[in-house]
């Protein structure tokens, strides 16, 4: 998986950790892009003349191909070689970022965002599988996944800060152009540090029909979810496209059960760890991603904060998660076991969202917001544990598709969380305005309801983890173990 040229990377152990940093740099670029756009949307709307409905496609045009291609990209990594797929994804993402930064029209930006989503899927789908292969030792893998989770948390928070600062000091174009130096920093060392894997070859696992079914089904499903804000959950548009997506995904599962070389081997779901981890993540990410969007809106629309101040206000979340995931999570997993650490992490998240349900309209940041943001550190415990469990039983031949599956459930959950919690918040706010309350009070009412529902989703995640992921006593102290 790794190779050094010269004395600077002559130590195999050092090369592995340098390779980890290269992979994390690529993933950082993808995660940055997921949040950096959030606080810049008003400026993009004003500059390019987006309507309120059209503006949502700045995010949707990225999410749809990203979610739809993750499983296929993961399998392509297994078949063609993960390094090849990773580098292709970096190049595609960087080129699309340049087009986004140069976009002078709404149509050009949306088209470039679609290509960005495809490149992001290629990078994200194979990164975790490469880390698992780099670190077969359970203790080392726990530390490596902790670093990987830290990058995720840091990237999300840094994206909020950078988005606000770059938009205010320069302009929104720079939120995309900043990806170019990161792509170079990740891509050039990767050519040296990562070995070119031959892969199994397309003839060993090319399932063209399965690829078409799952890609179309996931894209259509995410399109349906993100469209609920405009069309409503009970509309003919939502029900029709939702039903079509379910038919396509059902057809994909039937195809995988019968195909000689399936795109997604259903044997992966025989692992209780894999199935349980993906289900728990679905509930947890739906709650947390919806929270991330809504708390940013609350700080700006209810408390009247600027984009830059909002980004810095969210920074304690990333710092808290990073401080926990970078070293503490791996040590706790070795001492207490993955199962206990996961439950503690999710429990902290439940308390965080429950705390936000009491937030008054004229909230004090140190008293009413900051404690909840610090409790989000539970994500720094929960995510490394979930990632380790999701990959624990994956064989080397299936690590790419297992990584793609984990990322797919995460992406679908984020779209679903924003759609569901955003719809609930908007509905409660509209009801509050109809009752004669001022706009800020109505928005605060809507956000409190959404935070409460998010807390319920996290409680369900806790229950699912407690039932499905309970470890045998003999294995409780080990974080993960790669299947032979």
UniProtKB/TrEMBL annotation:
Keyword Transcription (UniProt): no
Domain of life per record: Bacteria
Cellular location(s): Cell membrane
Annotated Gene Ontology cellular component terms: plasma membrane
Segments traversing the membrane: 20-43, 55-73, 85-111, 117-135, 147-166, 172-194, 206-226, 232-254, 275-299, 311-330, 337-357, 369-390, 411-429, 449-469
GO molecular function terms noted in the UniProt entry: transmembrane transporter activity
GO process annotations (BP): response to antibiotic
Alphabetic keyword roster: Antibiotic resistance, Cell membrane, Membrane, Transmembrane, Transmembrane helix, Transport
Residue ranges of every copy of the Major facilitator superfamily (MFS) profile domain listed in the record: 19-473
Membrane-topology descriptor: Multi-pass membrane protein
Protein name: EmrB/QacA subfamily drug resistance transporter
Organism: Kitasatospora viridis
């Amino acid at each position: 998986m790794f190779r050094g040229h010269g004395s600077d990377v002559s130590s195999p152990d050092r090369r592995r950790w340098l390779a980890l940093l290269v992979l994390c740099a690529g993933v950082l670029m993808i995660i940055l892009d997921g949040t950096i756009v959030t606080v810049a949307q008003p400026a993009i709307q004003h500059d390019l003349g987006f309507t309120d409905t059209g503006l949502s496609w700045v995010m949707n045009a990225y999410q749809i191909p990203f979610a739809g291609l993750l499983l296929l990209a993961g399998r392509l990594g297994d078949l063609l070689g993960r390094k090849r797929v990773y580098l292709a994804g970096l190049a595609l993402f960087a080129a699309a970022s340049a087009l986004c930064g140069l976009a002078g029209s709404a149509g050009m930006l949306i088209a470039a965002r679609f290509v960005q989503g495809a490149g992001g899927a290629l990078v994200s789908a194979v990164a975790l599988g490469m880390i698992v292969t780099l670190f077969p030792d359970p203790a080392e893998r726990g530390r490596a996944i902790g670093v990987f989770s830290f990058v995720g948390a840091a990237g999300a928070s840094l994206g909020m800060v950078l988005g606000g600062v770059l938009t205010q000091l320069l302009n929104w174009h720079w939120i995309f152009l900043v990806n170019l130096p990161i792509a170079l920093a990740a891509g050039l060392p990767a050519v040296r540090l990562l070995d070119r894997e031959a892969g199994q070859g397309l003839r060993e696992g090319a399932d063209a029909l399965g690829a078409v079914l799952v890609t179309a089904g996931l894209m259509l499903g995410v399109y349906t979810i993100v469209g609920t804000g405009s069309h409503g959950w009970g509309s003919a548009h939502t029900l029709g496209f939702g039903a079509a997506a379910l038919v396509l995904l059902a057809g994909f599962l039937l195809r995988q059960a019968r195909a000689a070389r399936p795109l997604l081997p259903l044997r992966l779901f025989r692992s209780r760890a894999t199935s349980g981890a993906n289900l728990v993540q679905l509930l947890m990410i739906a709650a947390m991603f919806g929270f991330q969007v809504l708390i940013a809106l609350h700080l700006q629309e209810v408390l009247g904060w600027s984009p830059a101040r909002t980004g810095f206000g969210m920074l304690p979340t990333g710092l808290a998660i990073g401080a926990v995931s970078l070293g503490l999570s791996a040590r706790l997993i070795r001492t207490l076991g993955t199962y206990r650490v996961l439950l503690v992490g999710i429990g902290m998240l439940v308390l965080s969202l429950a705390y936000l349900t009491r937030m008054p309209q004229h909230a004090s940041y140190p008293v009413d917001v900051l404690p909840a943001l610090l409790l989000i550190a539970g994500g720094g415990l929960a995510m490394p544990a979930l990632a380790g469990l999701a990959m624990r039983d994956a064989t080397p031949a299936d690590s790419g598709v297992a990584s793609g599956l984990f990322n797919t459930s995460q992406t679908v959950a984020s779209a679903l969380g924003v759609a569901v919690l955003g719809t609930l918040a908007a509905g409660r706010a509209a009801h509050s305005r109809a009752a004669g309350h001022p706009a800020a009070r109505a928005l605060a009412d809507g956000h409190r309801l959404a935070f409460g529902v998010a807390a319920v989703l996290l409680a369900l995640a806790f229950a699912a983890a407690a039932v499905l992921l309970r470890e045998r006593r003999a294995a409780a102290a080990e974080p993960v173990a790669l299947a032979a």
